[in-house]
Amino acid sequence: MDAKQPGAQTPDTARMSDPDAAAPAPDAFFMPQTWDPSRYAANARFVAELGAPVLELLAPVPGERILDVGCGDGPLTQKLADLGCLVVGIDASAAQVEAARRLGLDARVGDAQRLSFDGEFDAVFSNATLHWMRDPDAAIDGAWRALKPGGRFVGECGGENCVAKVRGGLERALARRGIRMEDHNPWYFASASEYSDRLRARGFRVESCEVFPRPTPLPKDIRAWLETFAENFLRPIETAGRSAFLDEVQEDLRAALQGPDGKWTADYTRLRFKAVKP
Ligand code: BEZ
């Protein structure tokens, strides 16, 4: 799953000092990240390719009705359909949903923080999407309501300390321009204990929830990754200055993230969980 990002959001006034410690305030005027299917295919195919372990945790059974939250252009939705599941994919990006529909999938444009399904799914599944949810409780609540009793919510996304080095490079380059990173941060990277608490608070029984490092080799350089995933941080920079900004962040991160073979690796972590609606 891929392209994911809620609809509109507002400037962030309620963050705590540790950016991983609390969910950002859900907001109304924060521009969503946009997703270009061809750029996504070139720079982010690894997102679905690395989805096998969370699919295994989901353990889909043919005939089950499954909601794929943040289906993107549909590679994992397709896998579930090929296994004989009846899958509905939702994604905030109309362009990605169109690409998923071209595969013959039931994909719909929708905000994962405003799901309106009611007790109709055996499982809610999500890969690499929930860290874009500025209102995590709304996403958890939507999954809860979408599930039948006994249904499971299985997900994986960026967790605590995810892309911490990348964020450091962005923060320094933004600070040199007098821009506060947190004012433009679209990401929410929870710890396992925080996310478990949120799931339990909604009523889920948490079967597993963990955060672990997953250094992720990139198909291109960190500049291409930033262009694909970090659009929000470019917005406060005038268009003519964006290329220099990206060069600067890449140079800052070279020693930390580029190997002797020239290949770049992003310092991802994963939050992976399985929770059941009793
Ligand atoms: C992630 O999958 O962890 C991720 C993706 C885009 C931006 C930040 C993190």
Choose one word for the global shape: globular
Summed over residues and divided by their number, the pLDDT gives a mean of 90
Strand content: 15-25%
Order of helices and strands: HHEHEHEEHEHHEEHHHEE
- List the ions, cofactors and other small molecules found in this model: benzoic acid
| Strand arrangement in the largest pleated sheet | 3-2-1-4-5-9-6
The biggest beta sheet reads: 7 strands, mixed
Secondary structure: number of strands:
9
Poorly predicted regions are 1-21
Number of helices: 10
Share in helix: 25-40%
Query: Which homologous superfamily in CATH is the superfamily of the domain at 37-164 and 186-222 and 266-276?
Result: Vaccinia Virus protein VP39
Rg value? 18 Å
The first-level CATH class of the domain at 37-164 and 186-222 and 266-276 is given as: Alpha Beta
Name of the CATH architecture of the domain at 37-164 and 186-222 and 266-276: 3-Layer(aba) Sandwich
Distance, first to last CA: 26 Å
Q: Report the structural category.
A: alpha/beta
The CATH topology of the domain at 37-164 and 186-222 and 266-276, please? Rossmann fold
